[in-house]
Amino acid sequence: xxxxxxxxxxxxxxxxxxxxxxxxxxxxxxxxxxxxxxxxxxxxxxxxxxxxxxxxxxxxxxxxxxxxxxxxxxxxxxxxxxxxxxxxxxxxxxxxxxxxxxxxxxxxxxxxxxxxxxxxxxxxxxxxxxxxxxxxxxxxxxxxxxxxxxxxxxxxxxxxxxxxxxxxxxxxxxxxxxxxxxxxxxxxxxxxxxxxxxxxxxxxxxxxxxxxxxxxxxxxxxxxxxxxxxxxxxxxxxxxxx
Length: 242
Prior knowledge:
TIM Barrel, single chain, alpha/beta, 6-stranded parallel sheet, globular, 8 helices, 38% helix
């Protein structure tokens, strides 16, 4: 089974994340947008260059808009210019794209293809394969589960979004008490079913915010314990990638 990870937005804490991945012989695809998000410190251009020496860098637009809600000419410009920006800063080819908020339509997909990308990631979870390289799904998101540690209606969001697919996978209720036991069972089920890949994704600022570094390290150690599991960047999931 191929094991891939991806991390969105380009927070300064991505550097700590990159180090952790390397410690466990893993790689990541970092989808970077130059616009600051949520008031957090972002990666400097110098840091992006260093990151690109160890991991794959993908584009994530320039200003993080919902590409389906802005004029199509602006959407096309966001996509094209973000590829150029990443390649200029990283000094590496940029072959992968990630739609902000996971939002896309056929126009947006075509713009990504025309810009020269090989594939694009979306935010649908609990998948372990995909036929459309420009709508590449994920297997699981790394974030607080079953509840966010915030006191508003969004606190139950993780459980609401995941309940049906988790139950359809036959995940026991005892494994739904926290993210780590849930993720371990999902990974093991997909591994035992001989699925082609497993795709973990998230945001390093959430790992920081919710104090989940230990959970991530434990999960990486868990995955490493399975035979014939190879860690690859997102682009390796695209059959047409040269």
